[in-house]
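Input sequence (603 aa), recorded before submission:
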Amino acid sequence: MAFSTHDQVPDSPTNVFATLNNLCAFSTSQTFSDGNLQVAANVAGYPTIPSNIPFPIGFGKWYIEFFIKYTTGYDSYGILPSNYNTNTNNYPGSISGSYGYLGWIGSKRYDGNSSTSYGDTFGSNGNLMGLLFDAENGTLEFFKNGVSQGTAFTSISTTTEYIFGISDYDGSTSGTYVVNFGQDSSFGGNKTSGSANAQDANGIGDFYYTPPTALALCTANLPDPAIDPASDDLPEDYFKCVGYVGGNTNEKFIGFRPDLVWTKKRNGTENHMLYDSVRGVTKRLYSNDSAAESTGGMTSFSSTGFTMSTSYADNESGYNFISWNWRAGGAPSGATSATGSAKRINSSGTQDDTSCDALATAASATITPTLMSINQKSGFSIVRFNGNGTANATVPHGLNKPIEMLLCKQISDSASFVGYAWNSWHIGLSNNSFIALNATDAESSASSIWVTSGMTNQVFTHGTAHTVMNRGTGDYIAYCFTSIEGYSAFGSYTGNGDGSSTTDGPFVYTGFKPAFLIIKQSSSAGNSWWLTDSTRSSFNGDTPNALRTNEPDAENTANSLIMPDYLSNGFKIRGWDSAVNTSGSTYIYIAFASMPQKFSVAR
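Predicted structure, token format:
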């Protein structure tokens, strides 16, 4: 098949332009072509098609061109929050009942609740529209055939992540649209290329009209992530998945000194075992059990990994094992005085140790931990504390950013006590809810164990059920996480129950290619916490190799319906098993990166 000039786009291994995201297609009635720059839609139900790269939060001014090839109805385009659920039958921008779409429809601007007069009428064949989003100052402006229609919106949140979207607004008519994110001013040969071959403010791209002082939406223009591969600072320097064969005492090489090591026998039944530098190298907990900590097979943390004894089941000869490893701030000194030892790496990556007492005082916390290991750069801390038996007690976590996931476990006293379970918290849960890592339970708020509004940039907050996770005689360990752009993500999605041969489940944007993913149905009981990683399943469609955090069984190698695709910017649910994709059910997820999207697209 012969190629035309417009089939050649300037994407390269070091720079990839945005396209429309066909993984968010509302139905098979949407047809994508020209490298996902053109879409033909004839779908009822107000579907919105987003781009595959969102606008960076609070960063840059961004310009996009949009050609109306064919329309018979009342269509729109604009921006919407990037966590918009495109896989359910929602109005543009509808997120759990609240509207967030900001766009241009006919001769009106639309803010998700109402429309008001704005500019000229754009909805006719052959018009070339433009969008200018100032993410730094929170304004949105539209253009028609190169002429500005004036500022449509001001005071847009600069702390929300938005994404470009096209919507068949009237829900019944058809249209064909072609988008130029900077890669093709001919719009797939539908127009003669712009005479100026206009570029953006960084000299990138090919636009029909000379853009205002703004940027093309492409990976080269994305801001450098906090963990920046361009500076030889990789996600695997803070989290890495490593496999090993049992039966030897050789170092399990990771590449950094781990502070949390989670191991699991792959091809046999055995508990998940968690070791950390705060409780001490030999002390283990089980993610699938409420038992107290016990002595395990780990013998040392080294500067580049860890070693194991062959006398315990977590290094048994004849079995394969997997380990997931996180770097916090290093092993605290072991002091258990009132001041407490806190090993800390700050957001710049510099070691600047402090004390638990100083952190508790600065946060006005009511509990002073005994030991802490903190890594603000990677958004992970380990906190050991003694409960004080009071309601609404607060504990410092040291991350200087609100936590988004808290795995908390009592490590002392009787295993029969209800507070012995992993009664944990996640940002994707309902208000004041908790969920147990070692069970198939749904989320619950009956005991008021955690206070959602109390998960601040300084502390996590217990609820009124202070005898569960804050007993006066209890010794606790807490693993605290907050998302770091391009490295980690914690959130939720709604299943669509797609059971067709297209296996078109929800697409979830994370901003990176995942290396590790846990999914748990939170709205209903009965489903496990399913854990996958890119080390055991190295390519999409590979053997499932999924494990359950709440069970000691071997990895699942049969049920392909629970396996997602790992993509350069997130993951795509391909199955319809209830564990990952029941229609209308809520699922929470935990994801860590192998590479940020800015650098993962060519790999």
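Checked by second reader. The chain is about 0% helix and 35% strand.
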